[in-house]
Amino acid sequence: MAPPSIVVGAAAAALNCIPQTFHNPNISGLGISSISAHVVNNWSLEIPQGLYTSHEARNVTDVSFCNVTVTSTHPGWNDTINTQLWLPLDPSDWNGRLQMTGGGGLVTGLLYTAMTGALSDGYASVSTDGGHNSLTDLSVWGLYEDQNPNLYNVLDFAQNSLHEAAVMGKTLTKDFYGKNVSYSYYTGCSTGGRQGLAIAQNYPEDFDGILASAPALKWNDIAIQMLYPMVNLLDQHDGFPNQCELDALTAAAVEACDPKDGVTDGIISAPELCDLDPLTMVGRSIPCGTSSEGHVVNISRIAAIGAKGAWYPVEQSGTALWLGFGQQAQLGGLMNTTTTTTTTNSPSGVSEPEPVPFGPSVQWLACMLKHDPAYDWRTNYNVQQMYEQLKSPENALYRGILSADNPDLSKFRDAGGKMITWQGMADDNIPTAESQDYYQSVEAHDPDVRDYYRYFQPPGIGHCLGGPGFFPGQTFENLVDWVEHGRAPDSLLGVTQPDFNGVISQRPICLYPKRAKYDGEGEVTAAGSWTCQ
Ligand SMILES: *[C@@H]1O[C@H](CO)[C@@H](O)[C@H](O)[C@H]1NC(C)=O
Ligand SMILES: *[C@@H]1O[C@H](CO)[C@@H](O)[C@H](O)[C@H]1NC(C)=O
Ligand SMILES: *[C@@H]1O[C@H](CO)[C@@H](O)[C@H](O)[C@H]1NC(C)=O
Ligand SMILES: *[C@@H]1O[C@H](CO)[C@@H](O)[C@H](O)[C@H]1NC(C)=O
Ligand SMILES: *[C@@H]1O[C@H](CO)[C@@H](O)[C@H](O)[C@H]1NC(C)=O
Ligand SMILES: *[C@@H]1O[C@H](CO)[C@@H](O)[C@H](O)[C@H]1NC(C)=O
Ligand SMILES: *[C@@H]1O[C@H](CO)[C@@H](O)[C@H](O)[C@H]1NC(C)=O
Ligand SMILES: *[C@@H]1O[C@H](CO)[C@@H](O)[C@H](O)[C@H]1NC(C)=O
Predict the structure, then answer these.
(1) What positions carry a catalytic annotation?
(2) Where are the domains of the chain?
(3) What is the secondary structure of 83-101 as a DSSP string?
(4) Among residues 288, 217, 212, which one has the least CA distance to residue 249?
(5) Which InterPro entries match (predicted)?
(6) Terminus of the chain with fewer CB atoms < 10 Å: N or C?
């Protein structure tokens, strides 16, 4: 049986979990429509790796919290923003800190996996939907009925709602526990990573620590650029590749390029040394499909062109159309195709591959640049149009709202903030070069960037999670240690999933631009056998 004092603590707090406990947070330019509060008992959720950003999988069971929900609007904007703050019910379970979690794709936030992860670590956990929930189509929140863009809603998605949620999180947490939060943190990946950078640049006093992973930092540009690998194929008028062809090309790249980093371990750790020309692979025959219904195909020219377009940078008249993926990225991420079983017009028994481009990119193009949700990119889109759109005044307008690429972090530095970005070398959604370029631009602005902002590139890790490489599942804890104890991380600990023999490998992920180098002795699988240089 639990000690009576703890029962009293939670029970007393439950009586406080009512709307009257919480004051209007009084945020300039924001109207509070309502505040609700109720106890949620025994909340449980299964969290896969990375869905609580930079954390391993975990199963959370039986956490009780006070769910405070604030509905707000900017007068004149006709928006409705929902922000939830989850407060560990028993005050002795609260670690004194606040953690805000971000979104992904076209979703501003309120991802329950991330909120639950933070809550289970003892944080007061806050997140906002930024005016639209994850189920609302962009054609509904991004456009007015006359198909003109709703820039207010885009602003909410971009940044306003994030700052407001940070302020709400702090003031309402104080209302509940009767004391200020000791430290405040932000974590997110992809769109969530962009949000972290936007906060550091525009609201430098909101958080003590920010983890901005694999950021979509030039959101509106990258949304369009992410269509490049597919549109490049469309321009060839020659169909789309089978997924197995792309997988074979990735496997060939790993075979050719992995040893160049000094250790043959199935992981490309120095993608810049990789120069495999996929066109040399054309004609190689490979098994395709599952073994029961499998058949053999030859790697086609179109698949090789696809891989080439995905791996290497492309520019037109000085405008970057595409920065290029690491060669270990799953090419099917942005060049996904599907086939269906057919009995009629194909000797192999399957249909020609049909393209499935990245959904949020297709929606952004159709709604925000073509102002036509029904726009079909396959009928007349091409690389030339993409280039023109990237340079268009309308895109510049979105860039002003959505880009988080300001290299000047001096206000964040002066406020005492600390920030970490990591992006996997096998990211198959956003080129890793995006984060690297940004970090270099901050460094060009301030050579002492490492005093407050650090960047890492784990080999063999995909977009925010997954991949055969070294996942940095302790990064958030490293950030807390840096903020609260001044211990700046010179490396992150990367850990693989168990291999076929159940072996887990560990390796330091070095502070950019350093790379881990094998000492030449000791277990290759042990982090201690590697040095950053
Ligand atoms: C809200 O803030 C403004 C300025 O920050 C202040 O003038 C006003 O008195 C505040 N209102 C309340 C109810 O605290
Ligand atoms: C919550 O779970 C605990 C066991 O973990 C159980 O004792 C308790 O009755 C549950 N409470 C509610 C309200 O379901
Ligand atoms: C979570 O629970 C599921 C279902 O019981 C189980 O398959 C999975 O391995 C668990 N995950 C972790 C990280 O413990
Ligand atoms: C928190 O409260 C809001 C408003 O009542 C509700 O919509 C939401 O489902 C609640 N969340 C949880 C996890 O219970
Ligand atoms: C405000 O938004 C709602 C739906 O979000 C819409 O039905 C209504 O027409 C809008 N009002 C104005 C004045 O635009
Ligand atoms: C609590 O935070 C507020 C706002 O940041 C600050 O003005 C106040 O001094 C803090 N109170 C204490 C006791 O630290
Ligand atoms: C693959 O190429 C070989 C040799 O060029 C040819 O004999 C075979 O028919 C091709 N297979 C398919 C499925 O196209
Ligand atoms: C490819 O598209 C299919 C059909 O929409 C989907 O089921 C599958 O998960 C996608 N694969 C990838 C790698 O995105």
Answers:
(1) 190, 427, 463
(2) 4-219+403-498, 228-356
(3) EEEEEESSGGG--S-EEEE
(4) 288
(5) AB_hydrolase_fold (IPR029058), Tannase/feruloyl_esterase (IPR011118)
(6) N
Compute the distance between CA of residue 180 and CA of residue 105 in angstroms, rounded to an integer.
33
User: What are the tokens at 14?
Assistant: 């439950």
- What is the structure's pLDDT at 7? 53
Give alpha helix (H) positions in 295-335.
301-311
CATH level 3 topology of 4-219+403-498? Rossmann fold (3.40.50)
- 297 CB under 6 A from ligand 7? yes
Angle at 480 between CA 454 and CA 217, to 5 degrees: 40
Average pLDDT, the chain: 94
Residues listed for the chain: 533
- Other CB atoms closer than 10 Å to residue 271's CB: what's the count? 23
How close is the Cα of 48 to the center of ligand 6, in Å? 37
- Provide the pLDDT for residue 380: 86
* Beta partners for residue 443, in sequence order: none
Q: What are the tokens at 288?
A: 């395709």
**348: which DSSP letter?**
T
Rounded to whole angstroms, the Cα distance separating 18 from 28 reads: 25
- Based on C-alpha coordinates, what's the Rg of the chain? 24
pLDDT at 412: 98
Backbone angles phi, psi at 253, to 5 degrees: -65, -40
CA 64 and chain centroid, separation: 28
Q: How many CB atoms lie within 10 A of CB 96?
A: 15
Are 49 and 57 spatial neighbours (Cβ–Cβ below 8 Å)?
A: yes
HSE-CB of 14 using CA atoms within 13 angstroms:
10
Q: Is 127 helix (H, G, I), strand (E, B) or coil?
A: strand
Burial profile 397-409: b = 16 or more Cβ within 10 angstroms, e = fewer:
ebeebbbbbbbeb
Are 211 and 271 contacting, i.e. CB atoms less than 8 angstroms apart? no
| Cβ 515 vs Cβ 532: under 8 Å | yes
Atom of ligand 2 minimally distant from the CA of 64? 1
Q: How far apart are CA 261 and CA 273, in angstroms?
A: 8
> Ligand 2: which of 38, 59, 62, 65 to mutate, most ligand atoms within 8 Å of CB?
62
Residue 395: pLDDT band (50, 70, 90) is very high
C-alpha angle 25-98-493 in degrees, rounded to nearest 5: 155
